[in-house]
Give the backbone structure.
Amino acid sequence: MMLRDSLPERRPGFNVLWLQSGGCGGCTMSLLCADTADFFGSLTDAGINMLWHPSLSLESGSDALNILRACCEREIPLNALCVEGALLRGPGGSGRFHMLSGTGKPMIAWVRELAAVADHAIAVGSCAAYGGITAGGSNPTDACGLQYDGDQIGGLLGAHYRARSGLPVINVAGCPTHPQWVIETLMALAADQFDASQIDALGRPRFYADRLVHHGCTRNEFYEFKASAAKPSDLGCLMENMGCKGTQAHADCGARPWNGEGSCLRGGYACISCTEPGFEEPGHPFHVTPKIAGIPIGLPSDMPKAWFVALSSLSKSATPKRVRDNARVDHQVVNPAIRKTRLK
Protein backbone atom coordinates (compact mmCIF):
# COMPACT_ATOMS: atom_id res chain seq x y z
CA MET A 1 0.00 0.00 0.00
CA MET A 2 1.04 3.59 -0.61
CA LEU A 3 1.30 6.35 1.91
CA ARG A 4 -1.47 8.86 1.30
CA ASP A 5 0.92 11.67 2.29
CA SER A 6 3.13 10.82 -0.70
CA LEU A 7 0.43 11.90 -3.13
CA PRO A 8 0.04 15.47 -4.38
CA GLU A 9 -2.95 17.34 -3.03
CA ARG A 10 -5.99 16.95 -5.23
CA ARG A 11 -9.06 19.16 -5.58
CA PRO A 12 -12.42 17.54 -4.92
CA GLY A 13 -14.47 17.02 -8.05
CA PHE A 14 -14.88 14.69 -11.01
CA ASN A 15 -11.48 12.97 -11.33
CA VAL A 16 -10.22 12.14 -14.83
CA LEU A 17 -7.19 9.99 -15.61
CA TRP A 18 -5.94 9.99 -19.21
CA LEU A 19 -3.72 7.28 -20.69
CA GLN A 20 -2.19 7.20 -24.17
CA SER A 21 -1.82 3.82 -25.82
CA GLY A 22 -1.10 2.80 -29.43
CA GLY A 23 -1.75 5.87 -31.52
CA CYS A 24 -0.37 9.14 -32.83
CA GLY A 25 -1.53 11.49 -30.05
CA GLY A 26 -3.72 13.36 -32.54
CA CYS A 27 -6.74 13.42 -30.24
CA THR A 28 -4.71 15.24 -27.58
CA MET A 29 -3.48 17.69 -30.24
CA SER A 30 -7.10 18.27 -31.27
CA LEU A 31 -8.13 18.75 -27.64
CA LEU A 32 -5.50 21.45 -27.21
CA CYS A 33 -7.13 23.28 -30.12
CA ALA A 34 -10.45 23.46 -28.29
CA ASP A 35 -12.38 26.63 -29.08
CA THR A 36 -11.80 28.14 -25.64
CA ALA A 37 -9.38 30.70 -24.30
CA ASP A 38 -8.78 28.62 -21.17
CA PHE A 39 -8.92 24.86 -21.68
CA PHE A 40 -8.12 23.89 -18.08
CA GLY A 41 -10.33 26.68 -16.78
CA SER A 42 -13.32 25.29 -18.67
CA LEU A 43 -12.73 21.89 -17.04
CA THR A 44 -12.31 23.42 -13.58
CA ASP A 45 -15.51 25.44 -13.96
CA ALA A 46 -17.33 22.19 -14.70
CA GLY A 47 -15.90 20.54 -11.59
CA ILE A 48 -13.54 18.33 -13.62
CA ASN A 49 -10.13 17.55 -12.12
CA MET A 50 -7.51 16.19 -14.54
CA LEU A 51 -5.62 13.82 -12.26
CA TRP A 52 -3.00 13.10 -14.87
CA HIS A 53 -2.42 13.38 -18.59
CA PRO A 54 0.91 12.18 -20.06
CA SER A 55 1.30 15.25 -22.27
CA LEU A 56 -0.30 17.96 -20.13
CA SER A 57 0.51 17.16 -16.50
CA LEU A 58 3.57 18.21 -14.54
CA GLU A 59 4.00 14.84 -12.83
CA SER A 60 6.30 12.29 -14.46
CA GLY A 61 8.20 9.18 -13.46
CA SER A 62 7.44 7.91 -9.96
CA ASP A 63 5.07 10.81 -9.23
CA ALA A 64 2.88 9.84 -12.17
CA LEU A 65 2.99 6.15 -11.28
CA ASN A 66 1.96 6.98 -7.71
CA ILE A 67 -1.22 8.54 -9.07
CA LEU A 68 -2.00 5.49 -11.21
CA ARG A 69 -1.39 3.12 -8.32
CA ALA A 70 -3.47 5.24 -5.95
CA CYS A 71 -6.37 5.07 -8.41
CA CYS A 72 -6.01 1.28 -8.69
CA GLU A 73 -6.06 0.98 -4.89
CA ARG A 74 -8.97 3.44 -4.63
CA GLU A 75 -7.01 5.88 -2.54
CA ILE A 76 -7.97 8.43 -5.20
CA PRO A 77 -11.53 8.06 -6.59
CA LEU A 78 -11.43 7.52 -10.35
CA ASN A 79 -14.52 8.96 -11.96
CA ALA A 80 -13.44 8.67 -15.60
CA LEU A 81 -10.68 6.69 -17.28
CA CYS A 82 -9.91 8.16 -20.70
CA VAL A 83 -7.85 6.02 -23.06
CA GLU A 84 -6.42 7.47 -26.26
CA GLY A 85 -4.99 5.10 -28.85
CA ALA A 86 -5.60 1.43 -29.61
CA LEU A 87 -4.82 -1.30 -27.11
CA LEU A 88 -1.89 -3.44 -28.24
CA ARG A 89 -2.50 -7.05 -27.22
CA GLY A 90 0.50 -8.60 -29.01
CA PRO A 91 2.62 -10.55 -29.10
CA GLY A 92 0.50 -13.56 -28.35
CA GLY A 93 -1.85 -11.72 -26.00
CA SER A 94 1.00 -10.69 -23.67
CA GLY A 95 0.69 -6.96 -24.37
CA ARG A 96 4.46 -6.63 -24.29
CA PHE A 97 4.52 -4.56 -27.46
CA HIS A 98 3.55 -1.67 -25.17
CA MET A 99 4.98 -1.64 -21.67
CA LEU A 100 4.24 1.28 -19.36
CA SER A 101 7.70 2.66 -18.66
CA GLY A 102 9.07 2.05 -15.19
CA THR A 103 6.45 -0.51 -14.21
CA GLY A 104 7.41 -3.73 -15.97
CA LYS A 105 3.70 -4.13 -16.74
CA PRO A 106 1.94 -3.94 -20.11
CA MET A 107 -0.34 -0.99 -20.76
CA ILE A 108 -3.27 -3.34 -21.34
CA ALA A 109 -2.85 -4.67 -17.78
CA TRP A 110 -2.95 -1.13 -16.38
CA VAL A 111 -6.04 -0.34 -18.46
CA ARG A 112 -7.87 -3.46 -17.28
CA GLU A 113 -7.02 -2.71 -13.66
CA LEU A 114 -8.03 0.94 -13.85
CA ALA A 115 -11.20 0.22 -15.86
CA ALA A 116 -12.32 -2.11 -13.08
CA VAL A 117 -12.38 0.73 -10.54
CA ALA A 118 -13.49 3.61 -12.81
CA ASP A 119 -17.00 5.04 -12.67
CA HIS A 120 -16.79 5.58 -16.44
CA ALA A 121 -14.50 4.33 -19.21
CA ILE A 122 -14.08 6.57 -22.25
CA ALA A 123 -12.40 5.63 -25.52
CA VAL A 124 -11.04 8.88 -26.95
CA GLY A 125 -10.73 8.58 -30.72
CA SER A 126 -11.47 5.81 -33.21
CA CYS A 127 -8.27 3.91 -32.36
CA ALA A 128 -9.32 3.55 -28.72
CA ALA A 129 -12.91 2.90 -29.75
CA TYR A 130 -12.52 0.38 -32.58
CA GLY A 131 -8.80 -0.14 -33.28
CA GLY A 132 -8.69 2.50 -36.01
CA ILE A 133 -5.63 3.13 -38.14
CA THR A 134 -3.42 1.36 -35.59
CA ALA A 135 -5.30 -1.88 -36.32
CA GLY A 136 -5.10 -1.48 -40.10
CA GLY A 137 -3.35 -3.79 -42.53
CA SER A 138 -2.05 -7.06 -41.13
CA ASN A 139 -2.29 -5.63 -37.59
CA PRO A 140 0.97 -7.14 -36.30
CA THR A 141 0.48 -5.64 -32.81
CA ASP A 142 -3.00 -7.18 -32.49
CA ALA A 143 -4.44 -3.72 -31.82
CA CYS A 144 -8.08 -3.34 -30.84
CA GLY A 145 -10.43 -0.91 -29.15
CA LEU A 146 -11.43 -0.82 -25.50
CA GLN A 147 -14.70 -2.67 -26.06
CA TYR A 148 -14.78 -3.16 -29.82
CA ASP A 149 -12.56 -4.89 -32.34
CA GLY A 150 -13.59 -3.16 -35.53
CA ASP A 151 -17.37 -3.27 -35.57
CA GLN A 152 -17.49 -6.40 -33.40
CA ILE A 153 -18.09 -5.88 -29.72
CA GLY A 154 -15.44 -7.39 -27.45
CA GLY A 155 -12.11 -5.63 -27.71
CA LEU A 156 -9.78 -5.54 -24.71
CA LEU A 157 -12.39 -5.34 -21.94
CA GLY A 158 -14.93 -7.74 -23.43
CA ALA A 159 -18.55 -7.46 -24.46
CA HIS A 160 -19.88 -7.74 -20.91
CA TYR A 161 -17.70 -5.04 -19.36
CA ARG A 162 -19.52 -2.32 -17.50
CA ALA A 163 -17.94 0.53 -15.56
CA ARG A 164 -18.96 1.11 -11.95
CA SER A 165 -21.71 3.43 -13.21
CA GLY A 166 -23.25 0.54 -15.13
CA LEU A 167 -22.40 2.03 -18.53
CA PRO A 168 -20.33 0.29 -21.21
CA VAL A 169 -17.32 2.05 -22.71
CA ILE A 170 -18.28 5.43 -24.16
CA ASN A 171 -16.75 5.68 -27.63
CA VAL A 172 -15.94 9.31 -28.44
CA ALA A 173 -14.94 8.20 -31.93
CA GLY A 174 -13.21 10.36 -34.53
CA CYS A 175 -9.80 10.59 -36.13
CA PRO A 176 -9.10 12.85 -34.44
CA THR A 177 -11.98 13.60 -32.13
CA HIS A 178 -13.51 17.05 -32.17
CA PRO A 179 -12.34 18.73 -28.93
CA GLN A 180 -15.88 19.67 -27.94
CA TRP A 181 -17.03 16.05 -28.22
CA VAL A 182 -14.53 15.14 -25.50
CA ILE A 183 -15.18 18.17 -23.31
CA GLU A 184 -18.97 17.93 -23.54
CA THR A 185 -18.92 14.20 -22.77
CA LEU A 186 -16.84 14.82 -19.65
CA MET A 187 -19.04 17.74 -18.62
CA ALA A 188 -22.22 15.70 -19.04
CA LEU A 189 -20.76 12.86 -16.97
CA ALA A 190 -19.54 15.25 -14.27
CA ALA A 191 -23.01 16.79 -14.07
CA ASP A 192 -24.63 13.34 -13.92
CA GLN A 193 -26.51 14.16 -17.10
CA PHE A 194 -25.40 11.18 -19.20
CA ASP A 195 -27.01 7.74 -19.24
CA ALA A 196 -27.34 4.69 -21.49
CA SER A 197 -30.08 6.33 -23.59
CA GLN A 198 -27.51 8.83 -24.84
CA ILE A 199 -25.23 6.21 -26.42
CA ASP A 200 -25.85 4.96 -29.97
CA ALA A 201 -25.55 1.39 -31.27
CA LEU A 202 -21.76 1.72 -31.60
CA GLY A 203 -21.24 3.26 -28.17
CA ARG A 204 -20.90 6.86 -29.38
CA PRO A 205 -22.47 9.87 -27.61
CA ARG A 206 -25.65 10.64 -29.49
CA PHE A 207 -25.32 14.42 -29.10
CA TYR A 208 -22.92 14.31 -32.04
CA ALA A 209 -23.44 10.81 -33.51
CA ASP A 210 -27.14 11.33 -34.26
CA ARG A 211 -26.10 13.86 -36.90
CA LEU A 212 -24.53 13.28 -40.30
CA VAL A 213 -21.48 15.17 -41.53
CA HIS A 214 -23.65 16.10 -44.52
CA HIS A 215 -25.84 18.19 -42.22
CA GLY A 216 -24.36 21.66 -42.35
CA CYS A 217 -21.98 20.97 -45.23
CA THR A 218 -21.15 24.18 -47.09
CA ARG A 219 -21.41 22.28 -50.41
CA ASN A 220 -25.05 21.26 -49.93
CA GLU A 221 -26.36 23.37 -52.83
CA PHE A 222 -24.05 21.47 -55.17
CA TYR A 223 -25.20 18.18 -53.63
CA GLU A 224 -28.88 19.05 -54.10
CA PHE A 225 -28.36 19.64 -57.82
CA LYS A 226 -25.80 16.81 -58.12
CA ALA A 227 -23.27 19.31 -59.44
CA SER A 228 -20.11 17.37 -58.69
CA ALA A 229 -16.45 18.21 -58.38
CA ALA A 230 -14.05 16.51 -60.79
CA LYS A 231 -10.81 17.28 -58.94
CA PRO A 232 -9.87 18.14 -55.32
CA SER A 233 -9.77 21.91 -55.82
CA ASP A 234 -13.28 22.14 -57.30
CA LEU A 235 -16.11 23.73 -55.30
CA GLY A 236 -18.72 21.12 -56.23
CA CYS A 237 -20.08 18.16 -54.27
CA LEU A 238 -17.40 15.58 -53.47
CA MET A 239 -19.72 12.58 -53.14
CA GLU A 240 -20.12 11.47 -56.78
CA ASN A 241 -16.47 11.40 -57.81
CA MET A 242 -14.15 12.26 -54.91
CA GLY A 243 -15.01 9.61 -52.29
CA CYS A 244 -16.99 11.76 -49.83
CA LYS A 245 -18.98 9.76 -47.27
CA GLY A 246 -20.53 12.77 -45.55
CA THR A 247 -24.07 11.49 -46.25
CA GLN A 248 -23.25 8.29 -44.33
CA ALA A 249 -20.83 9.46 -41.60
CA HIS A 250 -22.22 10.02 -38.11
CA ALA A 251 -20.82 13.28 -36.72
CA ASP A 252 -21.78 16.93 -36.44
CA CYS A 253 -18.51 18.44 -37.68
CA GLY A 254 -20.26 19.74 -40.81
CA ALA A 255 -22.30 22.04 -38.58
CA ARG A 256 -19.69 22.42 -35.81
CA PRO A 257 -16.26 22.98 -37.37
CA TRP A 258 -13.00 22.91 -35.43
CA ASN A 259 -12.24 26.25 -33.77
CA GLY A 260 -15.36 27.66 -35.39
CA GLU A 261 -13.76 27.54 -38.84
CA GLY A 262 -12.18 24.31 -40.05
CA SER A 263 -13.44 20.94 -41.21
CA CYS A 264 -12.33 18.39 -43.78
CA LEU A 265 -14.98 19.45 -46.28
CA ARG A 266 -14.33 23.16 -45.83
CA GLY A 267 -10.66 22.44 -46.48
CA GLY A 268 -11.49 20.71 -49.75
CA TYR A 269 -11.07 17.13 -48.50
CA ALA A 270 -13.72 14.45 -48.76
CA CYS A 271 -15.20 13.02 -45.57
CA ILE A 272 -13.69 9.57 -44.98
CA SER A 273 -16.18 8.68 -42.22
CA CYS A 274 -13.55 8.59 -39.49
CA THR A 275 -16.08 8.09 -36.69
CA GLU A 276 -17.04 4.66 -38.06
CA PRO A 277 -15.33 1.33 -37.34
CA GLY A 278 -13.27 0.14 -40.32
CA PHE A 279 -12.97 3.58 -41.94
CA GLU A 280 -9.21 3.04 -42.24
CA GLU A 281 -9.62 0.28 -44.84
CA PRO A 282 -12.48 1.19 -47.20
CA GLY A 283 -11.20 -1.15 -49.93
CA HIS A 284 -10.54 1.69 -52.35
CA PRO A 285 -8.51 4.92 -52.40
CA PHE A 286 -9.98 7.53 -50.06
CA HIS A 287 -10.31 10.06 -52.89
CA VAL A 288 -12.26 7.73 -55.20
CA THR A 289 -15.99 6.98 -55.19
CA PRO A 290 -16.57 3.32 -56.13
CA LYS A 291 -19.48 2.90 -58.56
CA ILE A 292 -21.53 0.22 -60.24
CA ALA A 293 -22.96 1.21 -63.63
CA GLY A 294 -22.06 4.81 -62.82
CA ILE A 295 -23.99 4.80 -59.54
CA PRO A 296 -22.03 5.37 -56.31
CA ILE A 297 -22.04 2.35 -53.99
CA GLY A 298 -22.04 4.44 -50.84
CA LEU A 299 -25.41 6.16 -51.13
CA PRO A 300 -26.96 8.32 -48.40
CA SER A 301 -27.72 6.13 -45.38
CA ASP A 302 -31.40 7.12 -45.21
CA MET A 303 -32.33 7.01 -48.92
CA PRO A 304 -33.33 3.96 -51.03
CA LYS A 305 -31.16 3.51 -54.13
CA ALA A 306 -34.06 3.86 -56.58
CA TRP A 307 -35.05 7.18 -55.03
CA PHE A 308 -31.51 8.48 -55.25
CA VAL A 309 -31.17 7.54 -58.93
CA ALA A 310 -34.48 9.20 -59.79
CA LEU A 311 -33.70 12.29 -57.73
CA SER A 312 -30.22 12.59 -59.27
CA SER A 313 -31.65 12.56 -62.79
CA LEU A 314 -34.22 15.22 -61.95
CA SER A 315 -31.70 17.34 -60.05
CA LYS A 316 -29.12 17.32 -62.81
CA SER A 317 -31.71 18.27 -65.40
CA ALA A 318 -32.74 21.25 -63.25
CA THR A 319 -29.24 22.43 -62.27
CA PRO A 320 -28.91 26.20 -62.66
CA LYS A 321 -26.06 27.31 -64.93
CA ARG A 322 -24.51 29.19 -62.00
CA VAL A 323 -24.29 26.02 -59.90
CA ARG A 324 -23.09 23.86 -62.78
CA ASP A 325 -20.35 26.32 -63.76
CA ASN A 326 -19.19 26.92 -60.18
CA ALA A 327 -18.98 23.19 -59.38
CA ARG A 328 -15.94 22.55 -61.60
CA VAL A 329 -13.78 25.55 -60.59
CA ASP A 330 -11.75 26.47 -57.52
CA HIS A 331 -13.46 29.82 -56.92
CA GLN A 332 -16.90 31.22 -57.61
CA VAL A 333 -17.12 32.46 -61.20
CA VAL A 334 -20.85 33.11 -61.49
CA ASN A 335 -22.60 35.11 -58.78
CA PRO A 336 -26.31 34.77 -57.85
CA ALA A 337 -28.48 37.07 -59.93
CA ILE A 338 -29.82 40.26 -58.35
CA ARG A 339 -33.56 40.60 -58.72
CA LYS A 340 -36.27 42.65 -57.09
CA THR A 341 -37.73 40.51 -54.36
CA ARG A 342 -40.46 42.88 -53.14
CA LEU A 343 -39.61 41.80 -49.60
CA LYS A 344 -40.77 44.28 -46.96
Observations:
- The radius of gyration is 23 Å.
